[in-house]
Amino acid sequence: MAFVLRLPRLIYDDMLRHAEAERPNECVGILAGTPDGVVIERYPLVNALASPRRFESDARSMFEAEKCRRAAELEFLAIYHSHPTSPAVPSKFDLESNYCEDVMCVIISLLPPLPDVKAYWLTATSYTIAEYQIAD
Ligand SMILES: [Zn+2]
Known about the structure:
Elements: E1 4-8, H1 9-22, E2 28-33, E3 39-45, H2 59-71, E4 75-83, H3 92-96, E5 104-109, E6 116-122, E7 127-135
Parallel strand pairs: 1-7, 4-5
Antiparallel strand pairs: 2-3, 2-4, 5-6, 6-7
The chain binds zinc ion.
């Protein structure tokens, strides 16, 4: 059975707010939850590059988030980041720096008229669409 990420509406909305708040730069964060894909917590990270086109998880913010995640006994399910001015499609940079093939990559595009959120499985050279659902 295919893995489906289940995102509570409140966490989804907070993720979009994070993307808006970091404009014009890309935001980055972690979604953690149960092994079957239910997101329980969102851990915003600091984009060490503070760039509109690239992101790199700041080591200190990643360390703090991982400490909280492990203490809460949650799985690392997805890493999300924003594309302030481009579509929600993985960039060459995203593929080259993909965190891990077992971790879903969620991209939030802020291109008008509406934010667009898509999820992917990345490898170093390609990507496939991953499935997520928003749960109320
Ligand atoms: Zn990207």
